[in-house]
Design a protein that fits this description.
Elements: E1 22-27, E2 30-39, E3 42-45, H1 46-49, H2 53-58, H3 74-77, H4 81-95, H5 100-103, H6 106-112, E4 113-115, E5 121-124, E6 132-135, H7 139-145, E7 161-164, E8 169-171, E9 175-176, E10 180-184, E11 190-194, E12 198-208, E13 227-238, H8 239-245, E14 259-261, E15 266-267, E16 275-276, E17 298-299, E18 301-309, E19 314-322, H9 330-339, E20 349-351, H10 366-373, H11 381-384, H12 399-403, H13 422-428, E21 461-462, E22 467-475, E23 492-500, E24 503-510, E25 513-518, E26 528-532, H14 541-544, E27 562-566, E28 584-589, H15 602-615, H16 618-631, H17 641-645, H18 651-657, H19 660-670, H20 680-683, H21 691-705, H22 711-721, H23 734-749, H24 764-788, H25 836-855, H26 857-863, H27 867-894, H28 918-940, H29 950-977, H30 980-983, H31 991-1007, H32 1012-1031, H33 1034-1054
Helix pairs in contact: 15-21, 16-19, 19-21, 19-22, 21-22, 22-23, 22-24, 23-24, 24-25, 25-26, 25-27, 25-28, 27-28, 28-29, 28-31, 29-31, 29-32, 31-32, 31-33, 32-33
Length: 1063
């Protein structure tokens, strides 16, 4: 699934949301160079972003934010690869289409987003470059350059590089002046004049991030951790100046005037999806310190060079090559450079050297193409020197042949490439320049990342009779010339399902390689159970990875009946080289746990299954499942439509194989809506199946399955937790909290707390389901324990599952979330991409932060008497709640729901069909009430405050009470506006407690009030609330509100208030 941004970024743009390169820029209205991140034609101003509350509130990475306000990226890059990627991923989170933080905040967008189509932008060197080294890295280039008999036998043993001048490095777009040189004419006489043999080589280069101290060296396994990111490098040369300098030494002035690099730095993590195998190396070249055991040691990235001549606008397609043509990998170059004790400092630049391929089209310099593509092959002078006759003002003979008085075999210029049309030129984004007599070619002003390549091709221009260079840098898949953006992330480009040996196999075309990947469910084997191994258990995943495979072969009868399966991430080259901790899943046969107790006898389970079959016929079961997906699934999507509901013709057969616990739980949950099925409303209305009995059977089956659980066991537990207590006047028993402990333990055992988005070999439907199941468990844990006044099982440090996106709600072969059917039982339509459950998880995350800030044992001790601390902690939470409400109201608006009261949350409901969004509106109000509970504690404490003065405390007390009372007013208006189709819809199980908590807050405000006017206002509000609870919703509403009414009446009677509503 390709992620999209809420910004207007073309799908084929190389500055995609998966790329997000770093650079230094300035604008006409703010000339201070500062860090930014590129996406499409836009730039995210990092220096502005770090000053916003969005950064401090939502960015979990801890580092000195001041580094993102400097005029170079050195301090930021020195923090290390992990921090760099964390910032990139945070910005990605802000920019992805389903994140409202910046999308819905116009002020934040105006402050942090630069539209280069509207603002003049200048790019600067991304880093302060201390040292510059350039390697020899291509066999073909070495052969072409050193074809004389004096050439060493092996140019790569040891690796070779030369030290360049850092002062010669300039950013793309900088005008290049044709240099003067010490030249030799054809008679051997020296003279001074402008170079007539300017050449440019096309290379990659990488910046050092975290430095390496002198004499410390670095192992090849750790080398990439010290790489900040990759840029393009154009190494300029004057070959006529170089020719006499080369013997007996090397180029001096010929290479000291200019080297251009692209202004945008692509982080090494953004390239992970393009890893591939490096070219074979001679064993004699690989001493132990250079031996890289990674199977995927380089990156499959194509590079393309074009020259455009002005004013003719003729385009020369000069070269196309690939990083895979490099003999040494980035890691090997850095390891060798530091091996002798050289200190590598942040900002040092290492060039790959010319990346020349074996084909003519792969010669990545002008002079190399001149003698290769148009040479007949005679070993003449122009075939032995790296010069370009096609660049001479005068025709043949070329400079070398004139210099050495030899016959020249070059007789014509290279063929010219047809000028591209507007559409074609847009793809190549070739820049042009105008010739100047002064010898300077000036490119047009660059106010946008000009090329469509995603590190931006070099745009430095040189007037070699109007010659301008442009290198286009893009990944390439399987040798195709079609450019591909990192938005195709994960390496997967296409997939075609096949079946081999009974196992589903996906043929994946991965950037740089193609191989078979088994897409095999972790829950596919009815007689096997799956556990993700932790680091501290009796089974060591770091040991088991030596014995694990990437899939489970069921045909092998393992002697231990337990098979470790290694789950590879998209960035993992192989089992032994995981980018993170090994993800080893133990797949164990059920028979291993036959003696686990307590358990049920099989005949008890058989009897329960028969009872379910007698209560619910096959036809009734199919209809109940459809009701479940229509009225419950949109608000609690813990099942897979792909695996259960569709295709509908196969649903009856699937129900027969559905585990007993889940089947009973689905039936019991859906029975509440059977009157909304025309057939069931007439066939079972007089004697419907007992939902209570079905819930009991589900629980019985769970107690047996928990020894060898499957995802269905967890799904059953979640549905049991959503069950509303039949006793209207009693809160749930302790059993509910115990069952929740089981549920969280199951989710963690399955490894759901580890994000599976980048796992390979797992079906897409299962990835989506596992992520939804984790967030469903998270939601139930936080709300159940908050409503019970207990602590949570789940802590932020113990999971890394990213927030849900629209992609987590698609099903079958759909790739467009907008094509999914509408929920809520209304007419057919389009389901909003960000649905009820998405907003529920975001609200629950805020609730979790409230619990952490105020209601843990330690937090309560800190805040219960410290009003100032409580206020400071509450401010960002209040802002997040307002942002959430704005996003939720926008979601409701997309569903075209009429608004009955503009200032009330979730007062909108459907004119037809059932609408379950009201339970989320209630949850928002309850979350606010819980926060006000925390703020009222220090104000109502009988002990002296630990921080606030009496005057500030009094002002704070009035503000908090006013806020709490306002929330209660919203709650009353909310309940008064609800229609019958809302009361009969799905309500989350904590809603009963939510209504009761609102009652408690109103009574609390009443009995703690010291102002007669406030007492009258609260009394009036309570009367409205009481009447709304007694009359609203009919029988459905009574189930939800009876507990709240009881709490209210009991408190009023206790306080001696006996007024009736009629009075």
């Amino acid at each position: 699934m390709v992620l999209k941004s809420w910004l207007d970024v073309p799908e084929d743009h190389d500055f995609s949301i998966e790329n997000l390169p770093f650079g230094i820029f300035s604008t006409a209205d703010n000339v201070t160079p500062r860090p930014g991140i590129a996406i499409g034609r836009f730039i995210v101003d990092l220096s502005a972003l770090v000053e916003t509350e969005a950064f401090s509130m939502y960015c979990t990475c801890q580092f000195p934010y001041s580094v993102l306000k400097e005029s170079a990226l050195n301090s930021f890059a020195a923090l290390g690869r992990e921090t760099v990627n964390a910032v990139r991923m945070f910005v990605k989170y802000l920019l992805v289409e389903m994140t409202p933080i910046m999308r819905d905040n116009k002020e934040l967008r105006q402050k942090c987003i630069i539209d280069t189509a509207a603002v003049m932008v200048e790019m600067h060197l991304p880093m302060k470059i201390g040292d510059f080294s350039d390697f020899l890295n291509s066999r073909t280039h070495a052969k072409n350059t050193h074809s004389t008999s004096s050439t060493p036998v092996n140019m790569f043993n040891p690796p070779r590089a030369f030290t360049g001048r850092a002062s010669s490095l300039v950013v793309s777009g900088t005008p290049i002046v044709r240099p003067l040189g010490h030249l030799i004419d054809s008679s051997g006489k020296a003279y001074v004049g402008p170079s007539q043999q300017m050449d440019v080589e096309m290379e990659f280069a990488f910046f050092i991030g975290e430095g390496i101290k002198r004499f410390e060296r670095v192992s090849i396994e750790e080398a990439e951790k010290h790489i900040f990111g990759v840029v393009l490098l154009n190494d300029w040369s004057t070959r006529d100046v170089q020719a006499p300098e080369d013997h007996p030494f090397a180029a001096f002035n010929a290479k000291s005037f200019a080297s251009t690099i692209s202004p945008w730095v692509v982080s090494i993590d953004a390239l992970e999806a393009y890893r591939t195998k490096a070219q074979p190396q001679e064993p004699s070249d690989l001493l132990p310190y250079l031996t890289d055991k990674k199977e995927l040691g380089t990156f499959d990235i194509s590079i393309h060079m074009e020259w455009r001549l002005s004013p003719e606008e003729e385009v020369f397609a000069t070269a196309t090559s690939n990083l895979t043509n490099a003999y040494w990998s980035f890691a090997q170059m850095l390891t060798h450079h530091a091996f002798g004790g050289c200190e590598m400092r942040t900002g040092d630049l290492l060039g790959t050297g010319t990346i020349t391929g074996e084909a003519n089209s792969g010669i990545n310099q002008l002079s190399g193409r001149a003698y290769t593509e148009w040479n007949t092959g005679n070993p003449d002078a122009c075939g032995k020197q790296e010069i370009s006759a096609c660049r001479l003002d005068q025709g043949p003979p070329c400079y070398a042949c004139r210099l050495y008085a030899r016959e020249c075999i070059i007789s014509e210029r290279p063929p010219r490439k047809r000028q591209k049309s507007t559409s074609e030129a847009g793809r190549a984004a070739a820049s042009s320049a105008t010739a100047h007599d002064t010898g300077v070619a000036r490119p047009p002003h660059t106010d946008v990342p000009r090329s469509s390549n995603w590190t931006q091709g070099a745009q430095a221009a040189v007037s070699a009779n109007n010659d301008v260079d442009l290198a286009v840098f893009s990944p390439q898949s399987n040798g195709s010339s079609q450019q591909m953006s990192p938005t195709h992330g994960g390496g997967s480009v296409t997939s075609q399902v096949s079946v081999e040996s009974g196992r589903p196999t996906t043929r994946q075309a991965v950037v740089g390689r193609e191989h078979d990947v088994l897409t095999e469910s972790l829950d596919a084997w009815p007689t096997k159970t799956t556990f993700l191994l932790g680091d501290t258990g009796e089974s060591d995943p770091y040991l088991l990875r030596h014995f694990s495979s990437e899939y489970l072969d069921s045909s092998v009868d393992d002697i231990a009946k337990a098979t470790p399966r290694h789950m590879l991430r998209a960035s993992d080259p192989d089992v032994m080289h995981s980018q993170g901790k090994p993800l080893v899943v133990l797949i164990a046969d059920h028979s291993l746990y036959d003696r686990g107790e307590p358990r049920l006898d099989q005949h008890v389970l058989d009897q329960a299954a028969d009872e379910v079959s007698q209560m619910v016929s096959d036809e009734t079961g199919v209809r109940l499942v459809k009701l479940f997906f229509r009225y419950i699934y949109p608000y609690f999507p813990i099942l897979s439509k792909t695996r259960l509901l569709y295709p509908l013709a196969e649903l009856p057969a699937r129900l027969k194989t559905l585990p007993l616990s889940l089947k009973a739980a689905i039936y019991a949950s859906a029975l509440a809506f059977f009157t909304y099925d025309d057939v069931l409303a007439t066939t079972i209305v007089h004697s419907p199946p007992s939902s209570q009995r079905l819930y009991r059977i589900a629980w019985v089956a769970v107690t047996h399955e928990v020894h060898t659980p499957h995802l269905s066991t967890l799904q059953s537990c979640l549905l049991l937790l959503q069950r509303v207590n039949d006793d209207r006047y009693v809160m749930d028993t302790v059993f509910r909290w115990s069952l929740l402990g089981w549920t969280v333990a199951l989710a963690q055992s399955f490894g759901l707390s580890t994000d599976c988005q980048d796992w390979t070999g797992l079906p897409e439907w299962e990835k989506r389901l596992r992520r939804r199941l984790w967030w469903a468990t998270f939601v139930m844990d936080k709300w159940a324990f908050m409503s019970a006044g207990l602590t949570s099982h789940i802590h932020d440090d113990n999971y890394d599952v990213a927030p849900l996106t629209a992609a987590d709600f698609i099903y079958s072969d759909e790739t467009d979330p907008s094509r999914q059917p509408q929920h809520g039982g209304g007419p057919e339509g389009i389901e909003p991409p960000l649905s009820h459950f998405y907003h529920l998880t975001r609200l629950t995350a805020i609730l979790s932060d409230i619990q952490t800030a105020f209601f843990t044992v330690a937090a309560s001790k800190r805040t219960e008497r410290d009003f100032r601390l409580s206020i400071d902690l509450a401010k960002p939470i209040r802002r997040r709640l307002k942002e959430w409400k704005t996003a939720f109201d926008s979601y409701l608006d997309t569903r075209n729901l009429p608004s009955h009261q503009s200032n009330s949350t979730a007062t909108r409901s459907r004119s037809s069909g059932l609408d379950g969004d009201a339970s989320l509106g209630l949850s928002y109000l309850v979350t606010n009430i819980i926060l006000f509970r925390a703020l009222l504690r220090p104000l109502e404490s009988n002990l002296p405050s630990s921080s606030s003065s009496s005057s500030s405390s009094e002002a704070g007390r009035d503000a908090v009470r006013t806020g709490a009372r306002t929330c209660c007013v919203e709650a009353v208006a909310f309940v008064e506006s609800l229609r019958r189709n809302v009361w009969d819809a799905f309500w989350h199980s904590w809603s009963r407690a939510g209504f009761a908590m609102l009652s408690s807050m109103m009574i609390r405000l009443l009995i703690t009030s010291t102002d007669a006017g406030e007492v009258d206002d609260v009394n009036a509000l309570i009367r409205r609330w009481r009447w709304a609870l007694r009359t609203g919703g009919g029988s459905a509403g009574n189930v939800l509100m009876s507990l709240a009414l009881l709490r209210l009446d009991r408190s009023l009677v206790t306080r001696g208030i006996h007024e009736s509503d009629e009075e």
